């Protein structure tokens, strides 16, 4: 993942005679290096052979840093193919991603939707990934998405000994089904006519709002219901919002699309990085998770000054740029800011 876009990584495996040794090259991080132990345990548990030879795994392009455990299944499949345990004639037609447990079962990955979009763009026939992520990836049409439960399913799929049906999600039906299903609705508020009128004007023009009033006056209750009077998401906005939540790992297995406007309410102890995004492995922050929705800062004066200062530019530009020595990443952050405080 690079921002909210995906880059295709090709895994190459060479098994040659020699003393037993594992080498992973191509700028892997610790989670990728540790994958060999998980792969070995998973293959042995499922009665597959782990070659007792010299194994070199190359991750190309070699100059991009590889992070996370989602390459486990890819490397395991490549080792099985190069040791002749599975047929490899169809292998290059599929994108394969997934984290392996020691018993060979698959754990969910982050960023399934952007990866599926990139797979279709690159002309791949299909996408093989853990079952928990299948609905999310199946939003992308013209791409066969197979949700698998274990390494055993992968071997059966490529050897033709097991039949699997591709996951199908009707994107428009999924989108319209829960377009207006909010947990809290603005119509539930009784009285409060002045503030309701003010929030309706703010929602109509996409203005930022500050609510000032004593504890218990209903500031948080009103702010929480604000998304329900904003215009419904368009399909494009929904896909864009889903991509961000997918990259951050915030989508549940049941969710294929984010169909309602997000409402984010970070605690006032939040750090600058958690608010705007970044970190050693850049991740979207709260302001990007609130993209196309509402960011609510309760008890505004309690927030650190530095946290509020870093929001100045994203508020104006509607995107946040995280710069590092070797690269910079853009995350969209077009949100409506609502703040509350005591008098």
List the helices and strands and how they pair.
Layout lengths: L9 E7 L4 E5 L4 H4 L1 H11 L8 E7 L11 H11 L11 E3 L2 E2 L5 E2 L4 H10 L4 E5 L3 H4 L6 E5 L2 H9 L11 H7 L15 H13 L3 E4 L6 H6 L10 H13 L15 E2 L7 H5 E2 L4 E2 L1 H4 L4 E4 L7 H5 L2 H6 L1 E5 L4 E5 L3 E6 L2
Parallel strand pairs: 2-3, 4-7, 7-8, 9-16, 10-13, 13-16
Antiparallel strand pairs: 1-3, 5-6, 11-12, 14-15
Helix pairs in contact: 2-3
Model description:
The protein has 343 residues and is α/β, with parallel strands linked by helices. It has 2 domains: 10-159, 2-Layer Sandwich (Ribosomal Protein S5, domain 2), CATH 3.30.230.10; 175-341, Rossmann fold, CATH 3.40.50. Helices cover 31% and strands 19% of the residues. It contains 14 helices and 16 strands. It has helices at residues 30-33, 35-45, 72-82, 112-121, 134-137, 151-159, 171-177, 193-205, 219-224, 235-247, 272-276, 286-289, 305-309, 312-317; strands spanning 10-16, 21-25, 54-60, 94-96, 99-100, 106-107, 126-130, 144-148, 209-212, 263-264, 277-278, 283-284, 294-297, 319-323, 328-332, 336-341. Strands 9-16-13-10 form a 4-stranded parallel β-sheet. A 3-stranded mixed β-sheet has the order 1-3-2, covered by helices on one side. The chain is elongated.
């Amino acid at each position: 993942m690079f921002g909210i876009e995906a880059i295709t990584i090709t895994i190459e495996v060479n098994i040659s005679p020699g003393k037993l040794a594992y080498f992973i090259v191509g700028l892997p991080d610790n989670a990728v290096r540790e994958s060999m132990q998980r792969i070995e345990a998973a293959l042995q548990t499922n009665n597959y052979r782990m070659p007792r030879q010299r194994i070199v795994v190359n991750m190309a392009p070699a100059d991009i840093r590889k992070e996370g455990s989602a390459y486990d299944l890819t490397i395991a499949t490549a080792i099985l193919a190069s040791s002749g345990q599975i047929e490899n004639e169809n292998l290059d037609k599929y994108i394969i991603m997934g984290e392996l447990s020691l018993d060979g079962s698959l754990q969910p990955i982050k960023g399934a939707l952007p990866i599926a979009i990139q797979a279709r763009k690159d002309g791949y026939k299909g996408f093989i990934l853990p079952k928990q992520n299948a609905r999310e990836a199946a939003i992308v049409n013209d791409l066969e998405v197979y949700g698998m439960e274990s390494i055993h399913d992968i071997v059966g799929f490529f050897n033709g000994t097991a039949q699997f049906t591709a996951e199908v999600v009707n994107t428009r039906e999924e989108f319209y089904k829960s377009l207006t299903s909010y947990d809290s609705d603005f119509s539930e508020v009784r009285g409060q006519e002045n503030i309701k009128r003010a929030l309706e004007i703010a929602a109509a023009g996409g203005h930022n709002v500050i609510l000032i009033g004593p504890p218990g006056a209903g500031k948080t209750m009103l702010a929480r219901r604000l998304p329900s009077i904003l215009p419904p998401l368009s399909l494009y906005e929904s896909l864009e919002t889903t991509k961000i939540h997918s990259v951050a790992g915030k989508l549940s297995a049941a969710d294929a699309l984010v169909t309602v406007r997000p409402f984010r309410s970070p605690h006032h102890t939040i750090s600058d990085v958690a608010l705007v995004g970044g970190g050693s492995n850049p991740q979207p922050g709260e302001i990007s998770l609130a993209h196309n929705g509402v960011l609510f800062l309760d008890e505004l004066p309690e927030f650190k000054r530095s946290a509020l200062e870093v929001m100045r530019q994203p508020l104006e530009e509607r995107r946040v740029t995280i710069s590092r020595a070797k690269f910079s990443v853009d995350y969209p952050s077009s949100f409506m800011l609502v703040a509350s405080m005591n008098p």
